[in-house]
Specification:
In chain B, 23% of the residues lie in helices and 33% in strands. With 370 residues, chain B is α+β, with helices and mostly antiparallel strands. Chain B starts with a strand and ends in an 8-residue tail after the last strand. Chain C has 315 residues and is mainly α. Classes of the chains: A mainly alpha (315), B alpha+beta (370), C mainly alpha (315).
């Protein structure tokens, strides 16, 4: 059974329902109650981040801030303690950015090429290849942590030899580079899936016509498929961005310390139990962490949903 | 007492009026076809009869009873949909029996009714299958079975043949006609295909933009269209509609068709036109169907009024059973239907004959027939 | 619909003799796909094999290749039944069932309920739907942080309800080791139910409107229509959602860490945290590997039949 996110978006132009007024009151009532429940944690987070500490410990989380203050935000950004260093979260945000941008771009581009090959240049065994790449989307990452740590360790050692020999490490052993590698590899399955499904419905006649005109493999990709791939690019980029930005497991395992991504830094800020828990600073840090993906969601929600659907319905 | 009576039915959706005052009545056992172009409101009209959509004003009576406020399941109707609308998770037998189940009919009775209907429609061997395992024609029959088993007062069909391929469509059309003749049920049928309308109906209602253009028997609709739209919509190939002028006074009235490079065609006023409405110099539209334009030898022997003229043949289309010949008059193409073995050649001049018994005149201002 | 390079066209375009250049062109698509496929083969399948191998060794803090057969699995097997006092593995399994079960069931129920409500042709769907969906854009760390605050007895929910007057209200689950896992479930359902709702809503909207009209004419009440027709039609979507949710539950790691802080006493242990702690903290790499393999096998048992059936029916 196929589901399209556009079926989700297109409200049917049927007549307004002929429910009785009591039924409609119940329906709207329930929907609004749920909406409040869904919004509450976020609202509480925001309000808490704007309160001085005594208001939080002394007061009720639902109360509006009495002495509204942006100090927690400033602290979270610049001076909060992440583990042993107290330089705020800003450096870690930059770490995340350094890691996310290449990872998203590389995995998306590779996914596009893979999807192109799998749909327009079929070869015997293509279904098996696709199936194997698809299954790779679903493995629990726990089953690859140990080998990955080993390999990254070896790459780090190689990087040190290179540094000794040439003065540069050429990226080997750099935690950010490691994370990019990890996220590209484990994101390939999804990006290939998205593009493959999209190109599946792309008219093959266009490709054949271009072949007859003498276009090469890459020319067809560049001149015919890519220009028409904007929607799926957006979907894939958003999906990858959200997943990679929000990742914690890989970040905490392979990039601990100063090169941590921001999710790991957030976790450390919240769970560093040195004396008084500064709830407001924690919440401010959390909102900073959530802001990029939330912003993307607000601006491009439709593509976000399409990405979810594409990831949910296979084949 | 008519089985179905619609009076003054109007339907508004917001500020848009979709149905603008419909009056139709259908006697028991009749086959009413609602026909018209896309968006004319015929499906909406059917839905209001079914009770699936509400009406803004007017009345719908079934069997004399006002049903405006009755739930669809209480109106004693059954409906066959364009996409068949079979419940995919139920077997054919369960599909047919579902309505009875909802009405609380006991199991034994339901099974008997299903078996009887399956026999009539010859789908007994399909009873335990799922809709996804059936072909288009089989699904259509199951949909009809679901409607038949209800034994309603009125059957409603919403473009049931549109999803079938051409050959199957013709076969199913014949089946529906046979079913109607055997069971004598009252049917309201929606289609955009005017051939279906002509072949199936005892009464046709032509709709355009929510307004009734004409209601009548197929013969009336075809031969006495009440306005330009009906004349053009019904019949394939379409009726020739040519701009003309009236000249002369009482007794010597003529209809004139101008032509380039040729002398104009002068015709006597067709007998069925109301001559009193024709002033000297009035503009009219002259309508004649291709089968009434022939050559001198093939024109209908019983025709009382025939006019001949010479014209240059521009296109010849041999269609197997006929040959369509196209020429020019009054600035437009004029299509004639000739015998299949006609010896007409392109570029030659040929003598054409109008059977004026079948000609009609229209007022270009009002579009109505004169 | 699609074919590989049409050999006749290729012949006509390129001329009669396939030289080296032509054969390269034929293999180019496969060459383009190869790197990605190789990466997946190595980093996914290769690594899984590696972990599998490790699980048969006696690796402790470092990799050893001294094979000890099934001993690690036997250890886990014994721990499964060590209930008094409960071994970490037993706790992990129990929590997996509890958390997983609650998470899946409540996501499905809530998602279905919201989808049905939203499908009633109500106004304001454009506002409500994003509200139910936005938690998906958040990192699990952010979600956990927010809910840890929200459910905190001193400054969160319990306190707020006390302030409203109901002073005997007691809700210290988030700090109570026995009840922590339920808080993880609550946070998880909050985050993911929107996604399930989106899937179900798309499916509902995909149902042919004429079927619903036929049901109306057949006299089915709204309840009967949903129960006998709509929900059975949606069975494939149920299966998809069930499988995706189960797979997400098994992989849960970030969420449980952030809701429970540093997992005091291991009461909220899950297989994912068990694997991590035994591998990286307790220096029992082999046991950790064995637990990872068990996670992998469980997911494979669910996903492989599902993926196979999805891929098969398409062609």
């Amino acid at each position: 059974m196929t589901i399209t996110a556009d079926a989700l978006a297109a409200a049917p132009s049927r007549e307004p329902a002929r429910h009785s007024t009591t039924t409609r009151v119940i329906i709207y009532g329930l929907l609004i109650i749920f909406a409040i429940v869904y919004l509450m944690p976020l609202v509480v987070m925001v309000m808490t981040s704007l309160k001085p500490l005594d208001e939080i410990t002394g007061g009720n989380m639902f109360y509006f801030p009495h002495d509204l203050t942006f100090a927690p935000w400033k602290k979270a950004w610049g001076t909060a303690c992440v583990g042993l260093t107290c330089g705020g979260i800003k450096g870690y945000v930059w770490n995340s950015v350094k890691m996310v941008v290449p990872a998203v771009l590389i995995s998306t581009l590779l996914g596009a090429l893979n999807g192109y090959v799998l749909t327009k240049w079929r070869f015997p065994g293509h279904k098996l290849v696709f199936g194997m790449m698809l299954f790779a989307c679903f493995i629990p990452f726990q089953s690859v942590l140990i080998p990955m740590a080993t390999i990254l360790g070896k790459l780090g050692a190689f990087g040190r030899t290179l540094t000794d020999a040439t003065g540069f490490s050429w990226g080997f052993g750099n935690p950010t580079v490691n994370l990019v590698l990890v996220h590209v590899v484990y994101g390939l399955g999804f990006t290939t899936l998205f593009f493959r499904n999209y190109y599946e419905t792309f008219p093959t006649e266009l490709v054949k016509a271009a072949q007859i005109d003498g276009a090469s493999f890459f020319q067809i990709f560049r001149r015919i498929l890519l220009p028409n791939s904007a929607p799926i690019f957006i979907v894939t980029v958003i999906y990858q961005f959200t997943n990679i930005w929000n990742d914690f497991l890989f970040g905490s395992t392979f990039a601990a310390g100063d090169s941590s991504p921001m999710t790991v830094a957030l976790y450390n800020i919240v769970n560093t139990s040195t004396g008084v828990i500064e709830y407001n600073v924690n919440m401010a840090a959390a909102i900073i962490a959530a802001a990029p993906t939330l912003l993307v969601y607000i601006l491009a929600g439709r593509y976000f949903v399409r990405g979810l659907m594409a990831g949910a319905v296979k084949g | 007492m008519a089985t179905l009576e619609i009076s003054g039915l109007r339907k508004r959706f917001g500020s848009l009026e979709i149905l603008k005052g419909i009056d139709i009545s259908l006697e028991k056992g009749g086959f009413l076809v609602l026909v018209g172009p896309s968006g004319c409101g015929k499906s909406t009209l059917l839905n209001t009869i079914a009770g699936l959509e509400s009406i803004s004003s007017g009345e719908v009576r079934i069997g004399g009873q006002i049903v405006n406020d009755l739930h669809p399941s209480k109106r004693d109707i059954a409906m066959v949909f364009q996409s068949y609308a079979l419940y995919p998770n139920m077997s054919v037998a369960e599909n047919i029996a579902f309505g009875m189940e909802m009405r609380g009919v006991p199991k034994a009775e339901r099974e008997k009714a299903v078996a009887a209907v399956a026999k009539t429609l010859q789908i007994e061997h399909l009873l335990s299958r799922r809709p996804s395992q059936l072909s288009g024609g089989q699904r259509q029959r199951v949909a009809m079975g679901r409607a038949l088993v209800r034994q309603p007062r009125v059957f409603l069909f919403d473009e049931p043949l549109s999803n079938l391929d051409a050959k199957l469509r013709v076969d199913m059309r014949v089946e529906i006609k046979r079913l109607h003749q055997q069971t004598g049920t009252t049917i309201v049928y929606v289609t955009h295909d005017q051939i279906e309308a002509m072949t199936l109906a005892t009464k046709i209602a032509v709709l355009k933009d929510g307004e009734l253009q004409q209601v009548g028997t197929p013969y009336e609709i075809y031969n006495s269209p009440s306005n330009l739209f009906v004349a053009d919509f019904m019949g394939s190939p379409a009726m020739n509609l040519l701009e003309a002028r009236v000249t002369g006074v009482n007794g010597a009235r003529r209809v004139v068709l101008e032509r380039n490079d040729h002398p104009p065609i002068l015709l006597p006023v067709p007998a069925n036109a109301d001559a009193t409405k024709l002033a000297d110099g009035a503009k009219v539209i002259f309508g004649i169907r291709p089968e009434a334009v022939n050559d001198k030898e093939s024109v209908d022997r019983n025709a009382k009024s025939v006019a001949t003229f010479d014209a240059k043949v521009e296109i010849v289309e041999p269609a197997g059973s006929d040959t369509f010949v196209v020429t020019h008059a009054a600035g437009k193409e004029l299509t004639a239907r000739m015998r299949a073995d006609s010896q007409v050649r392109v570029g030659e001049s040929h003598t054409f004959a109008f059977n004026l018994d079948k000609a009609v005149l229209f007022d270009p201002e009002t579009s109505r027939r004169i | 619909m699609t074919t590989a390079i049409d050999p006749i066209v290729a012949y006509a375009v390129r001329g009669p003799r396939p030289g080296l250049k032509e054969r390269f062109r034929d293999w180019l698509p496969r060459l383009v796909l190869a790197p990605s496929f190789a990466l997946v083969l190595f980093f996914v399948y290769g690594f899984n094999l590696w972990t599998l191998l490790l699980s048969f060794t006696n690796s402790k803090a470092f990799t050893s290749f001294h094979f000890i057969g099934w001993a690690n699995y036997a250890k886990l097997w014994n721990w499964t039944f060590q209930t008094d006092p409960p071994s970490n593995w037993y706790t992990a399994l129990v929590n997996m069932v509890l958390f997983g079960g609650l998470y899946v069931i409540f996501c499905l129920v809530l998602g279905l309920a919201l989808a049905i409500l939203l499908d009633q042709k109500i106004r304001g769907e454009g506002i409500l739907r994003p509200i139910y969906l936005y938690p998906l854009a958040l990192s699990f760390i952010v979600t956990g942080t927010a809910w840890k605050l929200f459910l905190d007895p001193r400054i969160g929910l319990e306190r707020a309800v006390h302030d409203l007057g109901w002073t005997s209200f007691h809700f210290d689950w988030v700090v109570n080791p026995q009840m922590m896992i339920y808080c993880v479930a609550i946070a998880g359902v909050w985050q993911t139910s929107g996604f399930v709702m989106a899937m179900f809503l798309a499916a509902l909207r995909g149902i042919d409107g004429e079927i619903l009209k036929a049901a109306q004419i057949d006299g089915a009440s709204a309840y009967a229509t949903y129960r006998r027709i709509v929900i059975p039609i949606m069975r494939p979507v149920f299966m998809s959602a069930l499988i995706i949710l189960t797979h997400m539950a098994i992989k849960s790691y970030d969420l449980v860490l952030s809701v429970t802080g540093k997992n005091p006493g291991g009461a909220a242990e899950l297989p994912s945290t068990f694997m991590y702690s035994y591998t990286f903290t307790r220096n029992q790499m082999a046991v950790g590997s064995a637990s990872a393999i068990i996670m992998l096998m469980t997911i494979a048992a669910i996903m492989v039949p599902y993926l196979y059936s999805e891929l098969r029916e398409k062609r």
